[in-house]
Amino acid sequence: MSRSTASDQSVATHRSQAENVVRDHAASHPDDPSASGNLDKIRDILFGAQAREHDRRFAQLEQHLIREASDLRTDLKRRFESLELYIKKEVEALTNRLTKEQDVRGESVTKLTQDLTRLAASLEAKASQLEQQANQAQSHVLQQLTARTSELADDVRARHAETTSALDQAVRDLRGEKTDRAALAAILMEASKRLSDDGASSTRA
């Protein structure tokens, strides 16, 4: 038990005893008008100091509570300001990070677009080059085929002319010399052989 509690209990005990004495005195002197006034004086003497002490304590407690409330308000204000500053810094840092990431991604997309554009241009140029080479090769092959065909045609015409000339000569020889059938047959066989050789040469070419 604390000292203040023991003191309060002692005061309460004395107060009770004093009130009992005053009540006994008032009961034994019911016609005495000063008994009531004396009772008030006795109460003031016994409990006036205690009441003033309680008022002082209440005032001190009130001041203490006011100081605590003020300190608490100041501390809360400081904490809220610190929290607000922290949140602002975090939001600013997050915004900066997102902005940087967006810039990096934008640069990556731009670079990728440029690379794709260059690749498309390179593929288009390669396709154009291949098409040009194919056209040139086709033109060259056509020229070779045309030249070869022309050569073969000239050769065929020359051989045909030669064969025709040989046949004409043979006919003239037959008419002039009136050879027999055996000679004519030999001549015809020779002409047939030449025609066969010409056809075989044309086929191989």
Blueprint (SSEs and pairs):
Blueprint: H1 3-28, H2 34-177, H3 181-204
Helix pairs in contact: 1-2, 2-3
- N-end to C-end Cα span: 138 Å
Q: How many DSSP H or I helices?
A: 3
Instruction: Give me the secondary-structure category.
Output: mainly alpha
Report the radius of gyration as a whole number of Å.
70 Å
* Strand and helix order: HHH
Instruction: Please tell me what the overall shape is.
Output: rod-shaped
How many beta-strand segments? 0
Residue share in helix: over 70%
Unreliably modeled segments: none
Structure summary:
This protein is mostly helical and 205 residues long. It is built from 3 helices and no strands. Among the domains are: 35 residues; 61 residues.
What can you see in these coordinates?
Among the domains are: 1-26 and 37-45; 144-204. The radius of gyration is 70 Å and the shape is rod-shaped. 0% of the residues are buried. The chain has helices spanning 3-28, 34-177, 181-204. The two termini are 138 Å apart. The chain is mainly α and 205 residues long. Helix 1 (3-28) packs antiparallel against helix 2 (34-177) and helix 2 (34-177) runs antiparallel to helix 3.
